[in-house]
Amino acid sequence: MRKALMVTVEVDPERVESRLGAGEMLCPSCPDGVLVRWGFARARRVVGVAEPVRPRRSRCRTCAVTHVLLPVTLLLRRAYLAELIWAAVAAKAAGAGHRLIGARLGIPASTVRGWLRVITGRAEAVRHWFIAVAVTAGVDVSIPKATGSGCGDVLGAVGAAREAIAARFGERSVIGAVTSARAAVACSGARLLAPGWPPVPMSGHPTPVGPDVAAADGSSSRG
Ligand SMILES: [Zn+2]
Q1: How far is the CA of 64 from the centre of ligand 1 (A)?
Q2: Ligand 1 centre from 211 Cα, in Å?
Q3: How far is the CA of 66 from the centre of ligand 1 (A)?
């Protein structure tokens, strides 16, 4: 399978265009490369977004590697807004089951169950990852206690990372408003639910406000 590389960027396509045009987007695959416009990725429907999303593709002037620029509201290979997925994780942490969550959010219960299974299955590793992000970004970070629930632990750790990022860079950064869902996307290189964890090697990344990067198979989209 051909692997496309992916970079998480802000939601506003005009800002993405202007940063690309100004040579302000750096290549994550080589030391000094600059990304330039290189067409678009396949348009995709995303639940929670009215218009189909058509991510910009870019190519490095130096190493010629192409990268899909995925907005920070989207997780790799998921056809739902990250905020919706995050709402499901939060509801699970609060004790709801996948059927109730699905009914509340208007999402098939089986889809919700799939998300929660992935999160629960990697909860400990995800918790460690985001606590490391919080400690890297923050000062006097208080480490959230284990809750006994996988989703609860992930929620707490991502919340701590969000707090640390907002404290350091402000509530609005290059990714826009710093929500937990966006922190979860940006600091996982959009791979929170993608196959394989950790999402990127710990050395050098994750940079908390991105544009954060990860090697990822960004070609397909599913539940
Ligand atoms: Zn490059």
Answers
A1: 6
A2: 15
A3: 8
Which residues line ion ligand 1, judged by CB < 5 Å? 27, 29-30, 33, 60, 62-63
- How far lies 215's CA from each of 29, 51, 84, 132, 207, in Å? 9, 27, 24, 20, 15
Residue range 157-189, pLDDT digits in tens: 999 999 999 988 888 766 678 899 999 999 998
Q: How many A from CA of 61 to the centre of ligand 1?
A: 7
Reference 201, options 215, 211, 190; nearest CA is 215
Could you read off the pLDDT of 12-46 as tens digits, one per residue?
Answer: 889 999 999 999 999 988 998 999 999 999 999 99
Cα three-residue angle 79-180-115, rounded to 5 degrees = 40
Can you state the angle between helices 123-137 and 150-169, rounded to 10 degrees? 20
